[in-house]
Description:
Elements: E1 2-7, H1 18-21, H2 28-48, E2 53-58, E3 76-78, E4 97-103, E5 121-126, E6 129-131, H3 133-143, E7 148-154, H4 155-164, E8 169-178, E9 181-184, H5 187-203, E10 218-223, H6 226-232, E11 238-240, E12 246-250, H7 254-268
Parallel strand pairs: 1-2, 1-4, 2-3, 4-7, 7-8
Antiparallel strand pairs: 5-6, 5-10, 8-9, 10-12, 11-12
Amino acid sequence: MKLYMSVDMEGITGLVDHTHVDSSGHNYERGRHIMTEETNYIITSAFETGCSEVVVNDSHSKMNNLLIEKLHPETQLITGDVKPFSMVQGLDASFDGAIFAGYHARASQRGVMSHSMIFGARNFYINDTVVGELGFNAYVAGYYDVPLIMVAGDDGAAREAEELIPNITTAVVKETISRSAAKSLTPAKAGQLLTEKTAIALQNRDRVKPLTPPDRPLLAIEFANYGQAEWANLMPGTEIIPGTTTVRFQAKDILEAYQAMLVMTELAMRTTFC
């Protein structure tokens, strides 16, 4: 069995604000150690449950957070950026299942450090379905007929996963108090939970169907202000919906929609306050 893992940081045990997840923050080194330990619990359980190969994609910020020297020796790590498919780089039809760890709630939702790729996005839409990073990434997995079998992170991420994917296994390592506060398990207790949940997810893999994306999806991104929409609209093929801060793009498939989202959000981040 071949397993794909995408590991973000905001949903990791005990991490609650930018000082834990920004490389310039005073808590970042602690955060990346906990992130690496948490990833290892899942990897080790996966190998013990019958996986023959585990590929991990570091999916946070500059995507060079995981300490490769601390990972299970049989792990293959995708690290660094720029990656053509960002948080789902390396995912293809050869995998039997996917696990997303360290995930968080989408933008505009209650959750620890909730957002969708950038802090200036309010909502992502694929046709009429609102998605965040979790949902968009699950659609890419579904394009390759790979089921997302488990999501680990805060309670907001778990709720989002359960709404999108029936029978998915979720592992909640912290409960939201506010966007920058949580009631968290300790790393040791979270490790026990992740070990158990990974085994359950792999054993129940056949009960989870891939999240199949629509053909020719219409991508729409609602931004926080009009300047961000103007920047995103510089990408050819996009249009601003009149009277809104929403930019849409007609994609030929979910892979093109995903890369369009990456370009649009990168452009939007160039917006200044005034």
